[in-house]
Design a protein that fits this description.
The chain is α/β, with parallel strands linked by helices. It has a domain of 190 residues: 3-Layer(aba) Sandwich (Rossmann fold). It is built from 13 helices and seven strands. It has a seven-stranded parallel β-sheet, sandwiched between helices. Helix 2 packs across helix 7, helix 2 crosses helix 10 and helix 5 packs parallel to helix 7. The relative contact order is 0.13. The C terminus is likely disordered.
């Protein structure tokens, strides 16, 4: 039966705030979909950040076995035969939809979800929106991090441009990174070194954004509603215009992690000169 009870503004705000009243450490997930997302998960898992769970999701079973994560989910076995989505977005989407129950169990009780994917592959483009939708349905704040292919990858680049809107519609905000920036600042680095730069930069974004969200929650969870709104007589409240449906924003990465020092992240056994390129990537 439809609930016809009309809530006051005070009741609405109190209801929204209620889940955070006793929240000292939000349950945070870093989920990578597809090859690029799995590579980031593998890197981030190696940092050993406490309070953050890493999950790798892929239709390519072989690649999934080569990464480290707290949880690895192989999806789409009946339709991909363990060989990946082959760049087909619809296959990636179908694989995720078939695994909805398992995905829902993986993200339940989470508070913050960082969703990372390369936007040129079938699993990244197709499965990621499904995972994001499920996470939001479970009540999590979803931050999307999408990686654009190189311009030279013409076909994948076109797919990414078309699929990005669907990706950002299931997130609270979306950070878009471009592989071509690597060519501008470090054209002579090896592929593995370039991958390390991108993964380290994304890790900095995740850590700093999470800290910002935790600070915001801590600052507001104990506020009395009257401190925010004051005592407003009902007769002084005018009827407002209907709100336009919210469109998730695309967030530039610089403000999110400009204040992070490289020392905050443990250094894996990598080329020590790689961090020299990171400030340029953040421009």
């Amino acid at each position: 039966m439809k609930n016809n009870k009309i809530e006051t503004v005070k009741e609405v705000v109190e209801r929204i705030r209620a889940p955070y009243e006793n929240l000292d450490e939000p349950v945070t997930l870093v989920i990578g979909c597809g090859g690029a997302g799995n590579n980031l998960v593998d890197y981030f898992h190696g940092l050993g950040k406490k309070g953050i769970t890493t999950i790798g999701i892929n239709t390519d079973e072989e690649h999934l076995t080569q990464i480290e994560a707290d949880l690895k989910m192989f999806i789409g076995k009946t339709i991909t035969r363990s060989r990946g989505a082959g760049g087909d977005k619809e296959i990636g989407k179908q694989a995720a939809e078939l695994a909805e129950d398992s995905l829902r169990d993986a993200v339940k009780n989470s508070d913050i979800v960082f969703l990372v994917a390369g936007l040129g592959g079938g699993t990244g483009l197709g499965a990621t929106p499904v995972v994001g939708r499920i996470a939001r349905e479970q009540g999590a704040v979803v931050i999307g991090i999408g990686i654009l292919p190189f311009i030279a990858e013409t076909a994948r680049r076109k797919k990414a441009s078309k699929g990005f809107n669907e990706f950002k519609m299931v997130t609270e905000s979306t950070i878009l990174l471009d592989n071509n920036k690597l060519l501008e600042i470090a054209p002579d680095l090896s592929a593995n070194e370039s991958l390390t730069i991108m993964n380290r930069m994304i890790s900095q974004v995740i850590i700093n954004t999470r800290e910002t969200l935790i600070s915001a929650i801590s600052a507001t969870k104990n506020l009395n509603i009257s401190e925010i709104m004051g005592e407003v007589p009902p007769e002084d409240i005018e009827e407002s215009e209907p709100q336009v449906e919210r469109q998730p924003s695309v967030v530039a990465p610089v403000p999110l992690h400009a204040n992070i020092e490289p020392e905050e992240l443990p250094h894996p056994p990598r080329n020590n000169t790689l961090e020299d390129y990171i400030p340029d990537l953040l421009q």
